[in-house]
Amino acid sequence: MTDPMRRILVTSAGGANGDGYGTLLSFSAGGELAGPFSDDPRITDPRGLSLNPAGDLVYVTSGDDRVLALDRKGNVTLDSGRADGLDGGGGTFAPDGRYCVTLRRRGTILALPPGLDTEGELLLPEAAVPFPRGFGFGDGGQLYLSSGIGPSGVGDNTITVFGRDGRLRNPRLVTDPELSPLDLAIAPGGNLVVSSEWPFGSPGATATIREYDPSTGRLVRVLVPDPAVEFTRPRGLRFGPGSQLYCVGQDHVVAFDFPSGRFLGVIAELRRLNGQAVLMLE
Length: 282
Known about the structure:
Blueprint: E1 7-12, E2 23-28, E3 33-36, E4 49-51, E5 58-62, E6 66-70, E7 76-79, E8 88-93, E9 99-103, E10 108-112, E11 121-122, E12 132-137, E13 143-149, E14 155-162, E15 168-170, E16 181-186, E17 192-198, E18 206-212, E19 219-223, E20 237-240, E21 244-248, E22 252-257, E23 262-269, E24 275-281
Antiparallel strand pairs: 1-2, 1-24, 2-3, 4-5, 5-6, 6-7, 8-9, 9-10, 10-11, 12-13, 13-14, 14-15, 16-17, 17-18, 18-19, 20-21, 21-22, 22-23
């Protein structure tokens, strides 16, 4: 039986990022569309999505060059204000509690205070990677940044490692000819999990979830959705209750049993979803 209080939140891209709905959508635990999670006009072409450590605020990176925090009813409670040219992408919380967002044009990561009341500071130098995708923090404070291909076709396909001090540790942790990363998450055991569309942007691209050893970059395994689902354009990853791994893509949110790697099926489906990030709100 599904939990009636659980919701699935998905950022659906629009505008230059695709033909999606350009808003933050809410689905029931059973996958039924409930509509926009918020009607606030400041949410446009949203990208990154993360729940704060206290579990009471949902942080959203808006295509309006701002970051917002919403309460569980969808009301905006914090607003960073517009920063022209921000072009923020995926976001997650650092161990020190700051909300961190990739800056796609600048090739780096911005760390904002949880109150969104200052401009924040760069965690990495400008142009640290050609085009930043998802990232995550290891137990030792190291930062794993997936470096992918940008919309212009420029970039590389690897995972770059930085130390706690922001210094480059390994420019190419992963050498995998079938990796084109779109998001990265840290698995419960510490391994790196990456959503991949290879070759990026190709009509015949293969969508996979790839798991790597964080020390050696060795490919541990590949998780593949049932071909009958026709899952394409994989983007946001999220670990949820019961060791389940969720991934959102073009028209679907899918799930895997992570310990076994078994594909659990489609959790939510919506034509033109063009999902960028997914969050399970308990």
